[in-house]
Amino acid sequence: MPRVSDDRLAARRREILDGARHCFAEYGYDGATVKRLEEATALSRGAIFHHFKDKEALFLALAREDAERMADVAAQEGLVQVMRDMLARPKDFDWLGTRLEIVRKIRSDPAFAQAWAAHNDDLEAVTLARLQRKREDGSLRKDVPTEVLVTYLDLVLDGLITRLATGQSTDDLHAVLDLVEASVRTGD
């Protein structure tokens, strides 16, 4: 029997993640039934769960991937830029609804909350490191602890995500992000 190449396995895993992301974003965690996951991925239950232990493992893999992607942008360009990208290209962020599901699962599932905490810590760590670099180069205000600024930006991010995921108007959000950015920078 021929073995499946590592490239083919990785491609199949990518197909599953991409289809599942759309399914979770559209239907939420509970509404993303196995049948809907099969339809969204165009793969069988067996093919999906060959790569992921169960639906929760698939959901957590998506959450991790999205957190890592956001952490990469945050590390390079800052968390405010992540938010600007969300406004400019909302179709690239179809995981926004999934982020709301993450919050719901954190509240209702202690095991999921523990698994998620480690990944959230990664995003917070890269944001903190970037802000500390900005403080050292003189472009970040020094009168507020860096950890408080991270919490502040995280709260703004959560509010933006909620607003986008619920379909509220985004007309004034560019100006809001300008205000947020100005509030963390020095007056120089």
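The above is record 1. Record 2 follows with the same two-line structure.
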Amino acid sequence: MSDRRPYILVLYYSRQGATRALAERIAAGITSVGGVDARLRTVPPVSPTCEAVDPEVPAEGAVYASLDDLRNASGLALGSPTRFGNMAAPLKHFIDSTSELWLNGALIDKPATAFTSTSSLHGGQETTLVSMLLPMLHHGMVYAGLPYSETALTRTQGGGTPYGVSHLAGTRSDRPVDGDESELATAQGIRLARLTLALESMRESRG
């Protein structure tokens, strides 16, 4: 086994804080499993004007992700609010910059999952999750959704899908993460952490 303690990159974009809240709960699930850490990272917004420059470190919340954060991660949780049934442009912009990792096969056989938040119940939660799944498959990652053994999937009145946890934020984005959504996010983090440790051992034994 490597002396480096494995970590899972929890990478998200959040405008109003709902996706960030899910990210923090997933991270809590990850760190509840011994032997693996969670690394919270975000991405800067995409500006329509080339003159606009964001500070290198955001004023609050997680710091911006680098390619090395992703390269050295043993697993990935990817989160975004929905934009017309798709992931948000800032997160897509970062994913589009990972060609180097794809060429080197840096993410092959690493587990990954996705999460999202929408303002309406039928606002594209599942298609947004699928949009984040696609680049993970191209990278050769092993996708982990939420199995129906998580009973909150069948009773939730807000978010929650077998493709990954989701959150119903409301039209004003002021609805807090409810109990079922929080339970599912934590369970998703736990499942991802356990798979990360198992697949980490497999990769190291394979050399």
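The domain at 7-205 is CATH 3.40.50.360 (Rossmann fold).
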